[in-house]
Design a protein that fits this description.
Elements: E1 4-16, E2 19-28, E3 31-36, E4 42-48, E5 53-56, E6 58-63, H1 76-85, E7 88-93, H2 104-114, E8 121-127, H3 136-139, E9 145-151, H4 164-172, E10 178-181, H5 185-190, H6 203-206, H7 209-226, E11 230-232, H8 238-245, E12 251-255, H9 257-261, H10 266-271, H11 284-295, E13 301-302, H12 311-314, H13 331-340, H14 346-361, E14 377-387, E15 406-416, E16 419-423, E17 426-427, H15 442-445
Parallel strand pairs: 1-4, 1-5, 6-7, 7-8, 8-9, 9-10, 10-11, 11-12, 12-13
Antiparallel strand pairs: 1-2, 2-3, 5-14, 14-15, 15-16, 16-17
Helix pairs in contact: 4-7, 7-8, 8-11
Length: about 450
């Protein structure tokens, strides 16, 4: 008599701690229940994954879904719909909305708005501000919170903490890892006059590589004084990779697919302000430094920094054009294309998008293809060749800087807690995303 599961995935090429090999996967009660030869088993739902690779569910630990306050660009439903269409099973959403997510009420409001509307599992950052420094230790432990986000340099929204004494206070209040946008506000203010009206190439001059390097040096010194772990978001310079390699005891590192794929000045020549983001897309030399960081194991995680603006907003002449681009839906296809090009392997990709986030933030039961863990899977066709098009993008912004780019490797299925949420570009009947649980706050979760 064979076993019976809720879901049975047959003939998949599984990428797990055991290596890469053909196996069946059985799911019961939302968790992986068995991996191996399950030819005698049965299930309520059976998927034949012949020819597909089954990865642990991809986690995007940096997205801006713009709700509340900026829903004309994006909202929790449309942003998470793009996530699952792109093979992403969980996201961490950023606090620079209107109002900013700086209080317990603001966090609860986002969680309430997400219920029944978000397609993927989710958690929300609390933003650090001078006004809530004393509350951060309590705020970071609330259910549904993935941690504290600190903006050392101004970006979209009004969250900004750039003075050393206030940054130190932020780092001294709480214990979970603090995620940081590391650009030096003072240097960028001094260089603001270097912006050339109508020339987005000068974005790279105003927010130069030293703006990032100075800020990251300051951050690491303050983190050591406070004895606090930090996570440096969207690292863009080869210099920071070398610096962070010497500080792995306190600092983890994120890079984005766009900084690994695009390079200046070509991206600004071809895309104009659609390539504008903070920190900027830099030269090919810096891009190669990021790839060395991946090869050497210095980079811990990939985040898309999905930060949509409408094309109408983007069409404003620089520096009036806003910084940011869509990214959550293209993370997986872009990185699979890099795998096929030999720039990294599937084990590295899984570490950067599943195991890495689970390790850094202490996710409960997520980030691993193993018995007892949540049945979150990203199924991909490594041989499929597709062209990324604006028409595929679910974001309200409706565009991607990678439109027209042909890639090899494509997300075919997104399964979350054993439920098939997306298959071959078709969505499930209704969104059923849930808040992510974290090991460091399980007691607080109840």
């Amino acid at each position: 008599m064979g076993m019976t599961f809720d879901l049975l995935i047959r003939n998949a090429t599984c990428v797990s701690h055991r290596g890469i090999g053909r196996a069946d996967v059985g799911v019961a009660d939302g968790r992986t229940a068995a991996i191996g030869d399950l030819s005698q088993a049965d299930a309520e739902t059976v998927i034949d994954a012949e020819g597909l690779h089954l990865l642990p569910g991809v986690i995007d630990s940096q997205v801006h879904f713009r709700e509340p306050g900026l829903e004309h660009k994006e909202d929790l439903e449309s942003g998470s719909r793009g996530a699952v269409l792109g093979g992403v099973t969980a996201v961490f959403e950023m606090p620079n909305t209107k109002p900013s997510t700086t209080t317990a009420d603001a966090l609860a409001y986002k969680l309430e708005r997400a219920r029944g509307r978000m397609w993927c599992d989710h958690a929300f950052y609390v933003g650090a501000a001078a006004e809530n420094v004393a509350l951060l230790a309590d705020l970071e432990r609330l259910p549904g919170c993935c941690g504290v986000k600190l903006f050392m340099g101004a970006s979209t929204g009004d969250l900004l903490v750039y003075e050393d004494d206030v940054i130190l206070q932020v780092l001294q209040n709480g214990s979970r890892r603090v995620s940081v946008h590391s650009e030096d506000e003072q240097r960028m203010r001094e260089r603001k006059e270097l912006a050339v009206a109508g020339d987005v190439h000068s974005h790279l001059v105003v927010r130069d590589d030293q703006s990032a390097i100075i800020a990251t040096n300051r951050l690491l010194a303050l983190a050591r004084r406070a004895g606090r772990r930090v996570h440096v978001l969207h690292v863009t310079t080869a210099d920071e990779i070398a610096l962070l390699a010497r500080n792995k005891d306190i600092a983890t590192v994120e890079v984005t697919p766009q900084h690994l794929t695009l390079a200046a000045p070509d991206c600004y020549d071809e895309l104009g302000s659609r390539a504008q983001m903070n920190p900027p897309i830099r030269t090919a030399a810096h891009r190669e430094g990021l790839w060395r960081g991946i090869a050497d194991g210095i980079v811990d995680v990939l985040g898309s920094d999905h930060a949509p603006h409408t094309l109408e907003e983007k069409a404003n002449p620089y520096p009036g054009s806003p910084s940011g681009m869509t990214g959550v839906q293209t993370l997986v296809p872009l990185m699979l294309d890099h795998v096929n090009a030999g720039r990294l392997n599937l084990h590295q990709l899984v570490d950067l998008t599943s195991a890495g986030p689970a390790r850094i933030w202490g996710l409960s039961r997520k980030g691993r293809l193993a018995v007892g863990w949540d049945a979150d899977y990203t199924l991909v066709d490594m041989k499929a060749t597709r062209t990324i098009e604006d028409s595929w993008i679910a974001s309200k912004a409706g565009w991607t800087p990678f439109a027209g780019k042909q890639v090899t490797g494509w997300p075919i299925g997104t399964i979350i807690r054993g439920q098939r949420v997306m298959w071959d570009d078709q969505l499930a009947d209704a969104p059923a995303g849930e808040p992510i649980r974290f090991n460091e706050t399980l007691r607080a979760h109840g």
